Amino acid sequence: xxxxxxxxxxxxxxxxxxxxxxxxxxxxxxxxxxxxxxxxxxxxxxxxxxxxxxxxxxxxxxxxxxxxxxxxxxxxxxxxxxxxxxxxxxxxxxxxxxxxxxxxxxxxxxxxxxxxxxxxxxxxxxxxxxxxxxxxxxxxxxxxxxxxxxxxxxxxxxxxxxxxxxxxxxxxxxxxxxxxxxxxxxxxxxxxxxxxxxxxxxxxxxxxxxxxxxxxxxxxxxxxxxxxxxxxxxxxxxxxxxxxxxxxxxxxxxxxxxxxxxxxxxxxxxxxxxxxxxxxxxxxxxxxxxxxxxxxxxxxxxxxxxxxxxxxxxxxxxxxxxxxxxxxxxxxxxxxxxxxxxxxxxxxxxxxxxxxxxxxxxxxxxxxxxxxxxxxxxxxxxxxxxxxxxxxxxxxxxxxxxxxxxxxxxxxxxxxxxxxxxxxxxxxxxxxxxxxxxxxxxxxxxxxxxxxxxxxxxxxxxxxxxxxxxxxxxxxxxxxxxxxxxxxxxxxxxxxxxxxxxxxxxxxxxxxxxxxxxxxxxxxxxxxxxxxxxxxxxxxxxx
Length: 543
Description:
Blueprint: H1 2-32, H2 47-55, E1 78-84, E2 89-94, E3 100-103, E4 107-110, H3 116-128, E5 135-142, E6 145-152, E7 158-163, H4 168-174, E8 182-190, E9 196-199, H5 201-207, E10 221-226, E11 230-235, E12 241-244, H6 251-257, E13 270-275, E14 282-287, H7 289-295, E15 304-307, E16 318-323, E17 329-332, H8 340-347, E18 361-363, H9 373-378, H10 388-399, H11 409-414, E19 429-432, E20 438-443, E21 449-452, H12 459-465, E22 479-481, E23 488-490, E24 502-505, H13 514-542
Parallel strand pairs: 6-10, 11-15, 16-19, 20-24
Antiparallel strand pairs: 1-2, 1-5, 3-4, 6-7, 8-9, 8-10, 11-12, 13-14, 13-15, 16-17, 18-19, 20-21, 22-23, 22-24
């Protein structure tokens, strides 16, 4: 027994250890996943549909025209050459598979590894050796197809045949599905000459940085890496989030990529939280935005850039008055100074004649979002499983008007009792409803509805005016719901009704149907009969 218990404890410890490791891994994993919205362009695509899209890309350049300073010509490109002079010539020619263009009169021209602009210059120089005093126009009219490969941190390497005017962003938006931790800010392109370059797609999308959006070339291999190094930007920037770490990136470049500081940003003390060299402890550095822009400090891997908000900056110290006042609307207040009476009388112009002071209310919206754990727990429990105290608490909380301040408008404005004159807070809502000059009857009365309020009438009088009790009414359990507080009171405890009060007459639930009672009784009788039969059988067998 001792050995079994010891083994059980050993396995329990192992399980807890594995669980702790798993939770730590999940936390670190969640932190390391870049969190900017542009990643949705590149994730969650259907692989087959992506291949079909790539194979059907149009020949138009992504920006609407082709940049002759960046586009490299190659085998299959078609050009037109127009020569205007004493005699006019017009040629449509294709670059051959070795990278040469055979031009009548000028001969074979080497266009290998030349941009379109350089190729035009070479062709023109060759023609001018043969022609004098002519005007030469050279245009690219059709682009070739190229083959590129996608590799690295993808489901599987795959090749695509694309128009040669396809840029990296065109390819990536239409490429196959990328994984959530794919690094989109360090995309490596390996060319046929084994040269390597890295490109940042986010800078293309956020900053329109054309240097990071090259034309793809024949034989390029686009390699996606898994992101395991990141930096984070918090606080008052347009796009806070987790970003892939880029070597040699400066803090000002990262803040610019995150949209830059907002209007409320405290730019005189931007905090950089950084790991020490052993990556065990954190320390902080502080810069002003001017220092960051001038000295260009670089970002370290796992840095956290914190741009804080100016304290109490652009705080909206306003309240809103709704309902039956002369001038409803938004009004500014002075913190810890402006009172309810000042806003109603001096700003909103006072009450209209049909305003109900009795049912007016002030609702405070700041600081009322706290969750009541006990109430949330009770919402998941059936009534039968609650104690009486729990049920009373649940009813009270469910009827509670969140944020409502205790203010007696009648005492304040009719009797000048300034102990009711509360100081307003930002976000307060003051609601002045119209007088409800009626009593509402609901439930089991003959004619439920609204009846004009008369101060001399009591609960029984209003029930009588509504035609009396209906045949299934529980006459001894009538409740009054007070309009001003929402409180439920037994009818006999109500001293005086007020306009807007509700009289509720509950319904006596119907008795069970005969057939239901019969089937339940028959089932119980069958069970008893089965038990009796079994007992008799055992007695007979024993004899």
